[in-house]
Amino acid sequence: MRSLPENKKQGSLKIKFTVIIGYLLVVVVMALGLVALYHNLVDYSNKRISSEDMSELLIVGNTLSMLYEIESEQNLINAENAEQYFLKYDSIAPKIKANLVELKEVAVDSSRIEKLDTIQLLVDKKRENLQDVAALLDSIRRAPRVVAQTESSYVPLKLNKEISDYLESKNLNNADVNQNDTSVVVGSRRGFLDRVRDVFVARSDSTVVIEKKSIVSDNDLKLIVDTIINKVRYSERLDLERQRQFQLAYLKRQETMTETNRMLTLQIDELLKGIEHEELEKSLRLLKEKEEMLANSQHTMFIAFCVALLIAFVFAILFLIDINKSQRYRRQLEASNKRISDLLDSREKLMLTISHDIKAPMSSILGFIELMDYHGNPKNETYLNNMKNSGEHILELASALLDYHKLEEGSWQLKESNFNLYDLVGNTTSGFKPLAARKGLEYSVKNELPKHLAVYGDLYMIRQIMNNIISNAVKYTSEGSVHVNAWLEDEDSSKRLVFSVNDTGEGIDEADQQIVFQEFRQLDNPLGEEGSGLGLAITKGFIEALKGTIRLNSRKGEGSEFIVEIPLKDANENEPKSKGRDNSETVPQDLEGISVLLVDDDPVQLTMTAEMLSRKKVTSVTEMNPDRVLPLLESMSFDILFMDIQMPGTDGLTLVEKIRRLGSERIKNMPVIGLSARSDMSGEKMKAAGFTGFLIKPFTSDRLYSIIWHHVRGESPGQKAFVEEENQSFDEKGARALIEFVSDDKRASVAILQSFINELAECRIQLQEAFQKKEEKMVQAITHKILPLFRSMGNKSLIGLMEKLEKGETLPDKEKAFVLDKIQEYLEEVETLRKEFDEN
Fold it and tell me: What is the per-residue pLDDT across 664-706, written as a single tens digit (0 to 9) for each?
């Protein structure tokens, strides 16, 4: 079955794949639609009347206009404008023929070609008609001239008589008289254009007039004159008849030409209408095709849109399904992460609970054991020693868990100082001799370090590294030996501590050699020895924090060798030097005569600390009001001052500054140890503020005694002046946790319980008022004051809420009421416990 992260990863990939495929399909469909639309648009643009069709229509129209032009002028033709008309006709006729030829070339219909041939014939016939008309016009023009000449030759009767009389008077009757005989000879017919030209240009006519002259006598004159007159009359009638014939022929030719023009115009008009009709049909067909193409384009785009919409809809559904799956996976993953986070928090709380909630009560148990007087009963002494050893083992486990937690969170801070490395190695390794001797092991230490080698580093880390490795070697070796070697490597101006631990134990398989450095991992051990599974993991973390290395050489059945290399720094001249002693030395017992001032706003804490000091015959003075500390210091003499950091009014940081400014050298140099339940306070910070040392609540009596001894007697029993540990909640133990150290002392127990009742009752009233007035600073001060007490009693839900209040967070009214109710319950519980002591 796949895990949630894998499902989420696959779901995310599936969503991406679905979205990509959906977009690609939509793009493909739209691209196909655009391609189809493009082809339709191309076809649409090509669907137009071709240039040939348009030119054909223009040619027909041009031809028709030219025919109309010559026809309109033809009706007005006469002898005077005939030449101009024929010249114009000759210029237009070739164009008409050229147009007809061009139309025939582009024509594809046989019927149209036949019409064009007919038009060509009609045009030719019209030309012939024009030629005939020209001849008729010529004849008509010539006819009146002949009649005029004849009439000029004829002599009227009266005139003829007068002529005769005149001739007689002149005696010309007997003489010969000249005679003229005129005859008309019609020549061969000339061409059309020649005759048209002859109408306007004087040239020899085709009709030739021949005159014959003769002389007649006077006797014949009278007869001749009469004859001529008669002849003239006859010729005059003949010419008029012929003229009428010419005019009749001209009219008939005109009718023929008109009919020809009509037929020609009709044919061209039919041709034009046919072409126009065809073009109209083409245009209508083209419009229809364009409409169909537009409809097809719209249909194509509609189909593409519908397909794209369908694809988008389908993939939207798939996408929503995948999103729902992804959201479901995300919710499951969030739930899983929350569960994992809760598990990690639970593990962290469990670790801290194990470390603190066990460490604190075990410290109380060990302190209680120390306070017991068991020297009179050897059996009780054995029991108590076993209890003490078990308690110390549990404390070691709790310390290991604390160290691992800090390393895992990355919150471990190096606490570097100057120390003697030779003494540190010697003191650390010597502590395992008794344990090795009890198991019958050969235990040897070869310390090749310079005796006066002072270095600068984290003494605690180096000591823990050696402790863990040597402890494992002794623990898991049933017989044989354990050898420890330590030496210094000095190369290229860099110093390194190298130490190795060899044992003859069971050894470790090569496949398991990396497992041993993992947290909470333990190998099968035939000896039945069990550990926390954190020792080597913490060791490796410490070594890496110091930028060192660790190597393991081991074979199954042949033992193991651990080699550690740690870089060293030269001693810092500005830092004090520590001797590097371990904490195996005994806690000092002689503290009698030392005077201590205890300043804390928590009366229970003051009572418990004072009771611890009274067991060592240490004189103590308690003070809850920080404003009265300075007068006490000036009026009384104290060897050391223990002061809470956070108090109402004047806090510890401000108070220590005032103390250091006092004029008395004794007070200025007096050791001042800071006390706090806060885990974010560091020794360096406290030292910079003016404190001499720092203890985190709750603390053991040994730690208290060691600090007093170190700062008052001037000798350190191995305890550090600055102790920094996490402070977390404890297992819920109730009100009896307040008197664990003094439960055998009825008077002290009653005093502690009564002090708790008085103080807590007042604090509850103040806290309730602060809630009502919404004074956050007052709430912080009160919760800080009483929080260590509730941590000792171990109510986790109450502690969690009070920690929020201490940090300045605002709680809902329901949670505030819960805090006040719980405080009231504890007051009632402590009151009941106090009554039990009174009754007993």
Answer: 777 877 888 888 765 555 666 677 778 888 787 667 777 788 8
Alpha carbon distance, N-terminus to C-terminus of the chain: 65
Distance CA 106, CA 118 (A): 17
Q: b or e along 572-600 (b: 16 or more beta carbons within 10 Å of the residue's beta carbon)?
A: eeeeeebebbbeeeebbeebeebebbbbb
Helices (H) and strands (E) in the chain, counts: 23, 15
Q: pLDDT value at position 47? A: 57
Same domain, 589 and 717: yes
- 761 with 655, same domain: the answer is no
Task: List CB contacts of 110: < 8 A, sequence separation 6 or more.
Answer: none
Report in angstroms the alpha-carbon separations of 789 from 335, 745, 786.
36, 20, 6
Claim to verify: residue 441 and residue 572 sit in the same structural domain: yes
Q: How far, in Å, CA of 148 to CA of 239, rounded?
A: 10
Residues 45-50, mean pLDDT to the nearest whole number: 57
Which token pair is 433? 């001799």
- Which sign, positive or negative, has the C-alpha torsion 350, 351, 356, 358? positive
Query: Which pTM value belongs to this model?
Result: 0.39
Question: Encoding tokens for residue 219?
Answer: 């006797």
Query: Cα 466 to the chain's mean position, in Å?
Result: 52
Residue 808 in any domain: the answer is yes
Is residue 402 a part of any domain in this protein?
no
pLDDT score, position 167: 63
What is the pLDDT confidence band of residue 819, given thresholds at 50, 70 and 90? confident
Q: Please give the structure tokens belonging to residue 661.
A: 């400014």
Q: How far apart are CA 169 and CA 606, in angstroms?
A: 203
- The per-residue pLDDT for 322 is 74
**DSSP strands (E only) in 368-471:** 416-420, 442-447, 454-458
pLDDT band per the 50, 70, 90 thresholds, residue 119: confident
Does residue 93 lie in a domain region? Answer: no
Q: In this predicted model, which residue has the larger pLDDT, 285 or 397?
A: 285
User: Does the pLDDT of residue 498 top 50, yes or no?
Assistant: yes
Enumerate the β-bridge partners of residue 578: 419
What is d(CA 339, CA 800) in angstroms, rounded to the nearest whole number?
A: 20
Question: Which two three-digit tokens encode residue 162?
Answer: 């007068």
Encoded tokens for 833 = 């416990």
- What is the DSSP pairing of strand 559-570 with strand 549-555? antiparallel
- As a whole number of angstroms, the distance between CA 483 and CA 442 comes to 8
Distance CA 283, CA 272 (A): 16
Assigned token pair, 277: 């009709």
Q: Which two tokens stand for residue 91?
A: 């210029």
**Tell me, what DSSP letter sits at residue 354?**
I
| CATH number, residue 566 | 3.30.565.10
Identify the domain containing residue 504 by its residue range. 413-578
Please report whether residue 45 resides in a domain: no
As a whole number of angstroms, the distance between CA 600 and CA 617 comes to 21
Give the containing element (helix H, strand E) for 97. helix 82-106
* Residues 517 and 424 both lie in one domain: yes
**Where are the alpha helices (H) located in 410-492, listed in sequence order?**
421-430, 433-438, 459-475
User: Helix 218-352 crosses helix 110-153 at what angle (to 10 degrees)?
Assistant: 150
Query: Do 565 and 497 form a contact (C-beta atoms < 8 A)?
Result: yes
Which residue, chain included where needed, has tokens 């863990």?
A: 468
Per the CB < 8 A criterion, the answer to whether 473 and 554 are in contact is no
Specify the 3-state DSSP secondary structure of 184: strand
> Which residues are CB-contacts of 386 (< 8 A; sequence separation ≥ 6)?
none
Query: What pLDDT does residue 755 have?
Result: 77
Per the DSSP assignment, residues forming a β-bridge with 756 are: none
Any idea what the CATH number is for the domain that residue 752 is in?
1.20.120
How many domains, the chain?
A: 3
Are 696 and 786 in a shared domain? no
- pLDDT band for 380, please (50, 70, 90 cuts): low
List CB contacts of 808: < 8 A, sequence separation 6 or more: 776, 780
Average pLDDT of every residue of the chain? 70
* Peptide linkage before 698 cis (omega within 30 of 0): yes
